[in-house]
Each structure stands twice: as structure tokens, then as C-alpha cells.
Amino acid sequence: MVKRCVVCLKQETRDGNCSFHRFATDKNLQQIWLKILNRPDLTDVSNQRVCDSHFDPSSFKTNQNNAKFNLTTKISKRLKRDAVPVHSIATAQSTHSTRSVSTQTDLDMNYLSNLFEKLSLYEQKLLNTTICIERFRDDDTNIKYYTDFKSYKLFCLIFELLQTHYDNHFIMYSMRNECGTLHSTSPDTCLITKENQFFLFMIRLRQATEEHELGIFFNVSQSTVSRIIIAWTRFIYSVLSSISLWPSKKQVQQNLPFEMKKNYPTVRVIVDCTELEIEKPSNPQAQQDTWSTYKNTNTVKALVGITPNGIVSYISSLYGGTTSDGSLLNMTGPGSLSWPSAMI
């Protein structure tokens, strides 16, 4: 079998002027050889050869056959145990110094150190070209813009508070039913941390950004964005719905504005029928139930109550846009909750 150099593809000739050498048996030394020869793709080097053109002359032990009996004086080259290749043939011809394993290891560590520095730089550049919460750690202006939280610290505080209520069984059940587990090996999902899922959810609430656009921002599919929003809506509702918004009479009285205290001292709540535009449902019946002739689009309605000093204290269930304000008030207002009329 003709020997061939794995680097320059030089073949063995009859004159034997070029010697071919196996890779070092030491695994660490093998890796150094592969890196110097720029052949990291080689996985099995047991049958590979490197010609002597890639070694410094001082890397060889030269043995001469015994010429005492006028035998042929053929020179056989053997590599030293710790020999390593040089970077190129030109280098091999010009250099006369021996590189020991320790010297090459030092060079290798410097090379790796430079690689890590470049990798960190590229990671930072990538971070600056994508939308993620980590990008805005020191940018409260954009945190305010995207989420309406005043600062990154406040965002983290709210997230941590939600984490204390984070029931893995509930949220994972919700996500498995709505979108499959978000901790699968799918590239779409494993890239979205819980913190960035919350960030995506808040951008949707604050900016009403389209799901397709959010998918581009976070480098996931639109369907993944939709499933994240549904899952987090259910999760946050399960947390916030347990909080009572209704203040006591004493609390309202203590915070009554001067004009309200003077003219309406018994008022505890100010109500209004609030109408919100929604996307057009795909179901024809839902389209009909949510159509608002006043807004000329699909909407949902709710009765919202605030205290005299402007704090939201009551939110009813949602109804379709076809529901009149009078019907909504009767179904969810004083009549249904037995509110004294004097307090409204």
C-alpha cells in the first residue's frame, strides 16, 4: 500500500528520499498535531501518515546502517518521542529549533485564550442584535418603553414575585396542552428562558406587537409566540385573580380627594363600561357575539370600577361587544353585587 501524507498528499516514491511517520500515540500530543496541521476533522489517525517535510530537522533521530562491511549507507529517520510538526514546509526548512511538548502546550493555551476572547466579543455582538432582557440590564429607558416597568430592577422584582407563585405542575400542564413543553429540545423553545418569555409577554401587553413580529424579535416561530402568550396569560391570571382589589370603606374614606369628600363623601366606587378591541375571531359565532356597532369592529366589554382617587378596585368578567352597557351594568353592577346605590 502506497503511503501518502495526510497534509500535502505527497506519496511514497521508490528512491525513499521522503519518510512518512505515524501520529503520536499520546492523545494530548495527537490533538496538538491535528491543530498544527490544521486537520481537526480527522477522527481516526491510526492509519494516517505525515511526511518529513512537516517537521523540523532536529525533530528526528538519524540512524545510519552499519557500513563496516560495505553495506548500503541508507539513512532511516525516526521521530523523537516529543516531536511535533511545524506549521508549514517553509517553516520546517528555515527553523532549527526544537519545540518541546511543554512549549507547544503553552502556545496552544495562548491560542485558546485568544479564541475565548473572540468568542466573548461575538457573543456580545450577537446580544446587541437581538431582543432579549439581558440586553437591557443597564437600559431603563428601553425597559420602560417595552414593558412599562420603570427599571430593570423592578422588572426582575415582579418576575421573582411571580416565580414564588410559579407552580410547575400548573404552568407545565398549561404549556403542554397549549404548545407542548417549552423545555423540549426544539430550537424554537429551548432558546426562550422563562425570564425572556415574561419579557415577550410584557412587550405584547405594552406595545400590542404582532405575534409575527415578536417571532422575528426572539427568533422563534409565530406559533411558539402564540403559545407562550396563552400559557403566561393563564399563569398570571391564576396569580393575580387571587388578589382582592376591593378596598375597605375605611381605606377609601382615608384617601378621598378633597372635592369628593366635600360633595360625595359616601362614594366608594366610580364605574364605567370599558370596551376593548380584539382580533377578529375565526369562529363565525364568536365574530357575531363580539361585533360592536359602536366601534365597528370586534370587541369585548367589562365593567371597571375605580376608587375616588383613581385606583382600580373592580373588574367584571368579559362579555362580547354586542352586549349593551345597560345589560352589562345589570349583570355585573350594583344589582348583581348588592352594592348600595349611594356608594356608586
From TrEMBL:
The keyword Glycoprotein does not apply. Residues 1-88 form the THAP-type domain. Its cofactor is a divalent metal cation. Keywords: DNA-binding, Metal-binding, Zinc, Zinc-finger. GO terms for molecular function: DNA binding; zinc ion binding. Gene3D superfamilies: THAP domain. It holds the Pfam family HTH_Tnp_4. It comes from the Eukaryota. InterPro entries: HARBI1_dom, THAP_Znf, THAP_Znf_sf, Transposase_HTH_dom. This is THAP-type domain-containing protein.
